[in-house]
Design a protein that fits this description.
The protein has 121 residues and is an alpha+beta fold. It has two domains: 33 residues; 79 residues, no CATH class. It is 40% helix and 14% strand. The protein has a two-stranded antiparallel ribbon. β1 and β2 form a beta hairpin. InterPro entries: AB_hydrolase_fold (IPR029058).
């Protein structure tokens, strides 16, 4: 009797999951993009907490309701000049001929995951 009950429960779950996903399509977006999960749970506005001393945090708003967090870091040859500078100095540093590398980390986790921070360093 227990095997039959377990099979019935599994069958009900098998039928109900697609129905729930059909009725609530926003669940699929959260499962695929995982944008609600902030792992690790840290404050991204202070990159110096991750030993990124020549890095500044700011936010872009490409369209209303969407905010993209950005860490701008300068190359090693500008690190001495960057110490103690404000956001305006970092914006001005983009105007020289130094190439800009944009790293898009994907849809899971944050910029603060250890392997991503090591890549930036």
């Amino acid at each position: 009797m227990r095997v039959g009950t377990a099979f019935l429960a599994l069958f009900i779950v098998y039928l109900s999951v697609p129905f729930v996903l059909y009725c609530f399509p926003w669940i699929v977006g959260h499962l695929v993009y995982s944008h609600s999960f902030r792992i690790p749970f840290v404050d991204l506005s202070h990159p110096e907490d991750f030993s990124l001393n020549h890095t500044v945090n700011f936010y872009l708003t490409p369209e209303e309701g969407i905010t993209v967090g950005v860490w701008q870091t300068v190359p090693d040859n500008q690190w001495q000049k960057a110490q103690g500078k404000d956001l305006e100095w970092y914006k001005e540093s983009l105007k020289d001929s130094t190439p800009v590398i944009v790293y898009l980390h994907g849809n899971m986790g944050t910029r603060a995951l250890s392997h991503r921070v090591e890549l930036i360093k």
